[in-house]
Specification:
Distance between the termini of chain A: 59 Å
Number of strands of chain A: 28
Strand content of chain A: 25-35%
CATH class of the largest domain in chain A: Alpha Beta
CATH topology of the largest domain in chain A: Fumarylacetoacetate hydrolase, domain 2
Structural class of chain A: alpha+beta
CATH superfamily of the largest domain in chain A: Fumarylacetoacetase-like, C-terminal domain
Number of helices of chain A: 8
Oligomer: homodimer
Chain lengths: 391, 391
């Protein structure tokens, strides 16, 4: 660990090698850009670090700038003690870290896509014919991206009637989570080649793509998911930079068949992360990110190949991260096989999908075990009852 | 027509009853909010009309404010001549009028949805079972919404191989248009009832949802349209306000079966507009908007029923506007029945889909024939060749 005057507890997600970025309200001050070390928020503008970029209520200007602000924070932490720059994280309000431009959600785990295919279309080949040729994705609702800790009101939407009855609106009865990693664009561009991804990607967040499976099932033909997803997408308050994660870039799994030229990369773009889902404090999924079939670099290339511009603040969800084994499934629809196999919690209660009062927390990190631990903290949300319909 | 000192030519889209809003660069000045009368742009801030809202590079602050700026413009036009406020529109650069928050595109013409069903799924019931129960929609790419006049580079994307061959990327060979009306949100909200739509809708734009049918056909299962649409969406530079269009609100067609409570309205939300598509100056579609099955009020209610917030700058496409007759089809895939029935242009050339160099112009208006004509001007774009792939 680099020498520093700051105190960091053993196993912290936030050693001096991490230095993620977020936005916090400290006391009664206006929200501004901060970093984090151990259990403390670093008030960057207060110690003169890039105040033109950090005395801002979002990360967008900093992300667009390309300026290496982390190097300046490293210097601060290696120099003379500046305890006045640090505030206990528990005394700060962590806010949505950036203004989301477009939110695109992918479908890049072959295990997740295969599981969903088996569950939803049991009589067909699980993977669609296009799945191995393009990193399939759709646009989600940018305005519904919220920061960890925001309550999740159970969504209302149109639900199929039983036994051929007419559909009717009501609270979702199959509210689910999706464990994802979100890629955040810093500098924009169009027609970005995979091997140029790190010139445009600023960093990553934990992302929970809350999903109402029944609303989605009713609505999704032929235009894809909409209200089944658009009520809420939770992200971690900390954007972990691609620079902090460079030591954990690894070769992604081999792709078969080989992909089209615009999706080919010479550099390794897999990311060796561990991701965990907790339901009411109990781990229900522990999986790795390195096995994702499609990389974030390919997702960025695909999103821009048609001429569309990537913009500062674009957020690209990885799609649900599931591994090959049962304990590695990143959604309840997979874990319970759409309700067939309920899970039992330590209090003896069972779950197929989420109940009001449940809390779901995502965690994620790279390293540990002798290497620096580069963590994301958490992305959490508690389910509240549906709002009664006003009409 | 109200008395005014401003000159307006007969048949103009922009009489004193219209007063739409846009954003223009006048000379070397910074872009700011303007209105329009006849062939002139009205520089609002220069004559002291709501400068806190109009000395801005987008309409967003004005749209969020709820202030009746049109009434102030009416007073200006009825008072002492202020020719210094007017600039010939040809001498101004018209810019994207608002910052798009989320862009949602609907599918609300029963004639369009039926035609597409017959073309794409000839062996099935044309309308999906959900179509008459919810105004089906998906999220499009907000960052690709551009103003009329911006060239449209032919998109590149993954195309199916012929006769079972592997897919490969290349320029779209079936580039199409979709004639739509876009609804623009002024004041945000959640769980908006249809009859409250006009408290949130600021106005409307012409919208061309450019579509690459081949890219879309390859990608759209199971998550819906993405790169086949996300390269460009053209809107008119003028946002015509809901206040200007109130005299043209009419009863929408009866819905059968009756819709769910959250989609029911007591007030009339159909809009009696005429819409036209020109290809290289030749009209290829003239249709009405009043026959749309789902209203913009229902689209807003549906978008927010699950708890999602509407935000200032949200843009909701109506979906392609097609009428029951062949001359009323708002897309080339319908006009040429996916290429089966090419159209012949006055120069003797034929088209199934768009060719490089083609120009498509949408026009639209309410009234005329003795009533005030409330027009949108145009939304136009010319096709340029695909950018050669860089990799």
């Amino acid at each position: 660990m680099p020498e520093t005057w700051a105190r960091i507890s053993e196993g912290s997600d936030f050693p001096p090698e991490n230095l993620p970025f977020g936005v916090a309200r400290i006391g009664d001050d206006a929200p501004r850009v901060v970093s984090r070390i151990g259990d403390h928020v670093i008030d960057l503008a207060a110690v003169g670090i890039a105040p033109d970029l950090t005395a801002e209520p979002t990360l967008n200007a900093l992300m667009a700038s390309g300026r290496d602000v982390r190097a300046e924070i490293s210097s601060l932490l290696a120099g003379a003690p500046r305890e006045d720059a640090l505030h206990p994280v528990g005394e700060c309000e962590l806010l949505l870290p950036f203004e989301v431009a477009d939110y695109v959600d992918s479908y890049s785990s072959i295990h997740h896509a295969t599981n969903l295919g088996k569950i939803l279309r049991p009589d067909s080949e699980p993977l669609m014919p296009n799945w191995r040729h393009i990193p399939v994705a759709y646009h989600g609702r940018a305005g519904s991206v919220i920061v960890s800790g925001t309550p999740i009101a159970r969504p209302i939407g149109m639900l199929a009637g039983a036994d051929g009855a007419a559909p009717s609106s009501g609270p979702s009865r199959s509210l689910d989570i999706e464990l994802e990693l979100g890629t955040v664009i810093g500098r924009g561009g169009a027609r970005i080649a995979p091997d140029e991804a790190d010139a445009h990607v600023f960093g990553f967040v934990l992302l929970n793509d809350w999903s109402a499976r029944d609303i989605q099932a009713y609505e999704y033909q032929p235009l894809g998911p909409n209200l089944g997803k658009s009520f809420a997408t939770t992200i971690s308050p900390w954007v972990v930079t691609i620079d902090a994660l460079r030591p954990f870039l690894v070769e992604a799994p081999e792709q078969d068949p080989p992909v089209d030229a615009y999706l080919r990369a010479a550099r390794p773009w897999g990311l060796d992360l561990t991701l965990v889902v907790e339901l009411n404090g109990e781990p229900i999924c522990t999986t790795g990110f390195a096995g994702m079939y499609w990389t974030f670099a390919q997702q960025v290339a695909h999103m821009t190949v048609n001429g569309a511009s990537a913009r500062t603040g674009d957020l690209i969800g990885s799609g649900t991260v599931s591994g090959p084994n049962p304990g590695e499934r990143g959604s309840l629809i997979e874990i319970t096989w759409r309700g067939r196999d309920p899970i039992t919690l330590p209090d003896g209660s069972t779950r197929t999908f989420l109940e009001d009062g449940d809390t779901v927390t995502l965690r994620g990190w790279a390293g540990g075990n002798g290497r620096p631990r580069i963590g994301f903290g958490e992305a959490t949300g508690a389910i509240t009852p549906a709002h009664p319909p006003a009409f």
